[in-house]
Amino acid sequence: MLLLFAGVALFVSVLVIANTFSILFAQRLRDVALLRCIGATRRQVVRSVRREAAAVGVLASLTGTLVGVGLGYGLIALIDALAPTVPMGAAELPTLWLLGGFAVGLMVTMVASWLPTRRVVRVSPLAALRPD
């Protein structure tokens, strides 16, 4: 049952991230068209957008991992303070799970940015010359 909730959370996060990238790229559509107008190829635009998505994914995954570790240690300290007769053991950092969570966060961001990236590279260089 917990895996079902985790799958739903991943699906919802993909939708939210894809919507955020769509809005971001829609706001910068004219800039991308101007880059295309001065000679940037589709491949260069795709690489630029994917690098941006990777940077966002790395920062978000790192932040989420650090916040999760901090909350875990804080929860252990809270339980020890509320129930001093039953102390919790020292927390153990499972490196494999932390790296797995980081990798899942990065991959979800990259997958979610794929569709908006395809839309942004289809922009014509002449779109920069059109009036708003």
Question: How would you describe what is shown here?
Answer:
- The protein is 77% helix and 0% strand.
- It has helices at 2-27, 29-37, 42-82, 95-112, 114-121.
- The longest helix has 41 residues, at 42-82.
- The chain starts with a helix and ends in an 11-residue tail after the last helix.
Furnish the topology, listing elements before pairings.
Layout lengths: L1 H26 L1 H9 L4 H41 L12 H18 L1 H8 L11
Helix pairs in contact: 1-4, 1-5, 3-4, 3-5
Radius of gyration over alpha carbons?
21 Å
Q: Which structural class should the secondary elements be placed in? A: mainly alpha
The main sheet comes to:
none
For this structure, the quaternary state is single chain
Q: pLDDT average, as an integer?
A: 88
Q: What is the number of beta strands?
A: 0
Secondary-structure element order, N to C = HHHHH
Low-confidence stretches: none
Distance linking N and C termini: 50 Å
Give the amount of beta strand, in percent. under 5%
The number of helical segments is: 5
| Envelope shape | elongated
Helical content band: over 70%
